[in-house]
Amino acid sequence: MIDDEVHAVPCAYEMDNSLEVIAAQFKTNVEVKDRKYRFQTYHKCFVGKEAVDYMVNERLASNREEAVQLGQSIMEELSLFEHVTRDHPFADEYLFYHFIDRGDVSINETTGKKFSWDDYLDPVSSNGVGSLQPSLPQPDLECIPEEDVHVASHVWPLDEHNVTLLNHVHPTGWQDPDPQNKFDLVVIGGGAAGLVTSSGAAGVGARVALIEANLLGGDCLNVGCVPSKSLIHAAHLAHTTKNTSALADSGISVGQVRIDFPKIMERIRRVRAEISHHDSADRFTKELGVEVYLGRATFVDPHSVEVNGKILRFNKAVIATGGYPSLIPMPGLKELHALNTNPGDKPRPYVMTNETFFNMTAQPKNLVVIGPGVIGLEMAQSMARLGTNVTVMGRSGRVLPKEDEDHALIIQQSLESDGCNFKLNVSEYVSVETTGTVLDNGLPELSFKIAEEIDGETVVSELFVDAVLVATGRRPNVTGMGLEAAGVEYDTRVGVIVNDRLQSTSNSNVWAAGDCASSFKFTHAADFMARTVIRNSLFFGKDKMSSLLIPYATFTEPEIASVGLYGTDLDEKGIKYRTFEKPFDQNDRSICDGTTTGGVRIRVEEKTDKILGATIIGQGAGNMISEITLAMQSGTGLGALAAVVHPYPTNAEAIRQAGDLYNRTKLTPTVKAILRGLIKVQRPGVAVPKLSH
Length: 693
Fold this sequence. Notes:
By secondary structure, this protein is an alpha/beta fold.
């Protein structure tokens, strides 16, 4: 007996639910051509309604509603196409869409999958019985594409965490998109400034190309903020558990603390990898609508750049190439640093900048830090707390030269209590070289010679160490990109020469943001410079760099954070001011926590409560400085801060109490007499004086 029921033929989506396969059919068969709407021509696009017709007719979908859902999945999950003005989702209407090519990872023919950095890893080899050096995978540099070798030689070890990182921020086998028409904005550099500029501009409808030669995420993600704060976190935990006297005072005792340095560094790599998707090529192409090119950009004329043999023409360009750590002139230093980043068969000498510091897998026994600034002190204290002998060197006779001298001394004394030694009157860095000895931690021993001025005499001394960190400042990345061809004026020490609107002074179509164009070399400064550039370059804005109020912090323990002008700045400008301070040893929460070092220092105009600058030194200073920054930004005076209710007990109460100190200065003898009179007349039996007419 034949069943009269009509059996529906399953649609292709049900037969093969691979979205990629359906998307490939879709892209091959929908009709793409130039189309006109309201006197404007849209090139190489298809119509949503016609695409729905195709999917239903070819049984990719069983009905029009399902076809719309399928089209939306292809559009959103695969980022295969978009509305020509990015104003509509996929719909069964007479709307124009075009296929997009923003770059993607190519297919490895051997595996049949997209290329990944773990394709190049050799099998993990053992370091032998009794070795303290962990076994870690190493890349086969001969198999890595030539354009990616420089990345592999600067990021190691290639464990699962660094493979994840590189697959996000410099995917190997990347296929650049084919540039179509002129870009509204070409952004050179994928650090903080470049990422904010490109994503922000694309978010408001601009067609944007982002070019990065090394790692997306820049210094902050890869070799700066993220890994350094992860190391500081580990060092803080170690210090807390080893500070037995403070623990005993609170009735707590712990056993022996063991430092597993390779595990600490592995966590740093894991944290960095977890965060890296936010800055990834995949996110910027598929979620944010940016066309990503991985390669070195070179200007060929004032309106175009070349990358990997492709010419990108632009209406506006933004240079956001960041900076690089500078090496001091010292015989042997440059050569050993090169061996650290381009190793041969011998153990890597640990002669590092911040760009390679977080690649360490073995703990140094003795570390020299050259440069008593922010980076140098943060890393010096962390390594000392983890058990390394640390010597900090400098030429100026003090640490943190911009900070108030008494505050800088507090930081130095804190590091000394953690075991750091200081040599701050170095007159010459004489030489550094290997001794030929490899220590039991697997690191080559180094002879490090300096000359110091001691009691008016020059004394040469030699230290035997196994690690050197150079933290003597940064220079802007402005060479090797053809700025001359673009007519962009620059200075190798200052960076791109820009006006107060961050526009090139010599090419009005070129702008710059971040470390390559500013002395404020902070991630948050780069972020807000990028926002300024978007408004000014695309929307005729008049925002000024000088209008930005930029706080900053040094994350030692105690922390120190500042905003606005220091006393020395005000003295140089001839501005009269008053200073109000509230020490943390008078703050109840600080006393409870046993963190009474430091306090709040606020400088105001001599005759008003207008805040001109402030410094906080103590626990949580980096978080607390934002309240004062907001007050300065909004024109709120110090006296008004006294009226802001703070939770009790908190460290931030010290800010309110500084406001109380200011308000007390308004209690002049005349004011006090009036107030006493008002109180007196309210007492029982006191006659109220009559007013005479």
